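Two quick folds needed for the group meeting slides. Do the first one here.
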Amino acid sequence: MDAFRPPKSVSGGDTSDSIERLDGDGSWDVLDWTKYDELVRRPVSHVNLEFLLEAERVIAEGHGVVLVNIDEAGTLFVTNFRLLFLSEGTRNIVPLGTIPLATIEKFNKMVVKNQSAPRRSDRSPSLRLLQIIGKDMRIIVFGFRPRTKQRRAIFDALLRCGKPARVWDLYAFTCGPSKFSNPNSKVRLLNEYFRLLGKGHRASESMVEDGSFTLSNDLWRISDTNSSYTMCPSYPFAFLVPKSISDEEVIQASTFRARCRIPVVSWCHPGSGAVLARSSQPLVGLMMNIRSNADEKLVSALCTQLVGGKYSRRKLYIADARPRKNALANGAMGGGSESSSNYFQSEVVFFWDRQHTCNER
């Protein structure tokens, strides 16, 4: 439709105030602001914004904003970390309308003149839209009330915060490495593990010295197999593994991975228990036929979930950060990639098929 042509110029890196004007009777001009007149557009107290992360602060906000993609009204916030859309009805964060600033490719101001109602006065306000294009291929469109300066405030805040002048102004540095102030990196790492395990313990240097940090819950445990860095010099002294996997199996599985980097838990969802795990490439050999029972058992245990007192299996997604042909080429040096036939209920996904140097993972 003519009313939805790709934006031409105004982006996050462009400080000009030019606006793309669109004429037509397409999807954008169906916004009927009268149905949002009953919305309570009162300022939201920043003190009560429990969904803000540590050290996250509100830079600008707009009330009575409509997320055009799903025709939902709410409040739009620009923080020092993300663009955040809060539903007016549920007061919950709308994932589609929420995107970290670092993943925004560009943003554009758009104006749509309404021609679907010819009897309206020529002075009828045009639709004020803000289009966000994300690096994750999302296209998000917000509609703002006419004759307000809310879109201007949001746009200016995105210009300021989207590309900060100093790297130290990024949220990653503002937040800090951890909410625990202990300078000992091993203690900070254990505190993060305790948090993931749901333990109320606080780590200490004495726990590191005497090895009393090997706590566990129903599914996961902290292993000290690498406490002296002899198994894997590039891994930390402690890491999370499934509780059902013994230290002997961990050591055995390490021989099947390049540089002994076995699959270990990097992140765990606090609600569902789903995990992200990291590892190096498997040593499947030139014919891609070498297997390891210990490795397959370890990977399988990463997908185990506890529901209603019973253990079940999640689907496993193996994301290989290489094109398929590069993974196959590494087989000549003993490496390679996992086979979905060797890992129960799994799917192997290769990243972008682009030309680059084939480095060892």
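Then this one, please, same format:
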Amino acid sequence: MQLTVSKHVAFFQRHLILLPNPYEEHDSERMALGFFCLLGLDLLNALDKISEEDRESWIEWIYNNYVLLYSKETKKSYAGFRGFATGSTPILNEQEPQLAATSFAISNLLLLGDNLSRIDKQAVEQFLSLCQLPGGHFKSTASTMCCDQDMRQLYLATTIATLLNISFPHTKLSLQYIQKCQNYEGGFSLTPYAEAHAGATFCALASLKLLVNSIPTQKQLGLDQTSVTKPYEFQDYIPDKKRLLLWLINRQQSSGGFNGRTNKDHDTCYSYWVQGSLQLLGASQFISQQDVKSFLLCQTQHKFGGFSKIPGEFPDVLHSSLGLYALAFNDKANFPEVEHAICLPTRRMPIKK
């Protein structure tokens, strides 16, 4: 079965204009929903379908959700984006910038061709510092009442720092936290001593990759006792790489798809999370890429466009865009080149100055 490009393009275009009823409970996450639609169109080389009027309007909407606040604790300003403020007078918690919304907002702006010049990078640096906890992980907002803190938030923070080319707070603490999250199965968990999860594993490996890339090269003593400069390798920070590889490879099921945890069913999005992890490790040759493609195109690709979570369900924008990204990993002829550690086509990555 072939990829039905025109139907997928129409699917994402519809969702950018009007969201169906099932998305009602995600109203406060419009920034994320918009990202999956824009990403899907870009993967299909169809962002030019967006009118200039819509592009400019959406950029303004994104910046309308940019929040600049003052911290009494540090006596400094901090900034980020919120997911979406419901109502004309948002409540205090809605006003707080969030790591997820900030990461999605920056990605949306890059997809829409914005130069990010309206973002106060120093204030975003301060926001990341306020979100980091003593253990090296992050909470989703700077609020003292925030309890949402795990590997996902750490990955969002590393993504923000990378896209804006700003400093990351206490890199060593975060590296140590990531290492603590590899469990006995080999995969990484959202928090130390929890169950290994494919999404958490991707977040851990991608965070390691981005953090290690930000560390200056180290000087090591060569075999001839002279000092040589050697770049850090992110895989050196993985406590048990062999067990990790075995765990990832065993996520592929007889259907060709992947599950996210031991003894769970396959799911379209894990074709992205698991393959992304293997791509980072340079180990994608250990799975059947043809079986992945068959699972996505023949089982979860919907006849009206988009991809569903599992065969037989209705499609949604998250699984649709991640399904396309999973295909893009191994199909450079029909898709743009994509990043492995950050969920964006390479052509959208900002040029570091």
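Slide caption for protein two: Strands lie at 66-71, 76-81, 138-139, 149-150, 218-221, 227-230, 307-308, 315-316.
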